[in-house]
Amino acid sequence: MTDGVLPDDREWMRRALALAPRGWGRTAPNPMVGCVIVRDGTVVGEGWHTEYGQPHAEVEALARAGDAARGGTAYVTLEPCAHFGKTPPCTQALAAAGVARVVFAAADPNPRAAGGAQVLREMGIDAVGPVDEQAVRDLDPVFFHAHSAEGARRPFVALKLALSLDARIADRDRRSVWITGDAARAETHRLRAGFDAVAVGIGTALADDPRLTARGDVAPRIPPTRVVFDGAMRLPLESKLVRTARETPVLVMGDERASTDAMRALEAAGVTVDLAGRGIERALVSLREAGIRSMFVEGGAGIASALLRAGMVDRLYLFYAPVFLGPEALSPFAGIDSPPIDAAPRWRHVGTDAFGADTLVTLARE
């Protein structure tokens, strides 16, 4: 319900929404949450969920507000929890601080934590919301996906592509290194930190010999598992991924083409092997069963087109570099279907950002 929304509520909620992403890479499987406490038109406390197992955003904001929270309004991006988990219920903390009103942007999709708004109302606190659910879903889509029927079957899949202006990922000689600049690559490392797994196809693993680690300003609480879609188990033992498998997990998704000797050699080097079988759908189901809730896929063309063709991409991160590579260059979209325009899947714009000379366009699956 959104009855009771006041003129300034959305402005203060935007401030809370800006705080929430500061928990990127540190809060999963909990959500990222921001909270702002306002009394008499002045911010008296603010906070965000800093890390899984640590105090929630409301508790952080209340600690900063102190006695000034009494009689104020708490703006929270997610409905305050009403259950005992790693920490006590936020509903109790808000009530104990004497907050008179709580405005929340989105209802909590986790059935164990939901119901906080009703608990607040029963304690005599005016609870208003949800007032901007789409903004919260765009902020933390992995959390909402994990608590959906689809999320119980497969991970949330984000596909990142570094593209030329004519949508090519490698030149005509199949060289793809450094299409985008330093700022875009730094953002890619930050994005990696927010996912359970970072994945590539075997073609990219062979061509680029990547490490697939998050080496940016954000240190993930748990380093993402490196995943390689490699049906025949061709990943070289001397590759950077295999040589570092005992430091950061590597999971190779294979099928019946894999030789026993190749599997044994990879396992002896510390790599986990999963013979999920042919088909991207089977692989995703197996990954979810292994506990991977979210996956950041970085190509190449084969895995990108397979995921798009199967309708399994939930978010697109498209980095465009200001360069044309021409019709003979490699397209990641060549293998997808060609439906009539009125039947083509549509994507919703989430954001556009500049990173040096490059442009990131973020899209969500409708």
Lateral strand order in the biggest sheet: 10-9-8-7-11-6-12-14-13
The number of distinct β-strands equals 14
| Termini gap | 24 Å
Largest sheet: 9 strands, mixed
Overview of this structure, please?
The chain has a nine-stranded mixed beta sheet, sandwiched between helices. Helix 3 (90-96) runs parallel beside helix 4 (116-122). The protein has helices spanning 9-19, 57-65, 90-96, 116-122, 133-139, 141-146, 182-192, 202-208, 240-243, 260-268, 280-289, 301-309, and strands at residues 34-39, 42-48, 73-78, 101-106, 126-128, 156-163, 197-201, 225-229, 250-254, 272-275, 294-297, 315-320, 347-355, 358-365. The protein is built from twelve helices and 14 strands. The chain is of the alpha/beta class and 366 residues long. Helices cover 27% and strands 22% of the residues.
Describe this structure in a few short sentences.
With 366 residues, the protein is of the alpha/beta class. 27% of the residues lie in helices and 22% in strands. The chain is elongated and about 65 Å long.
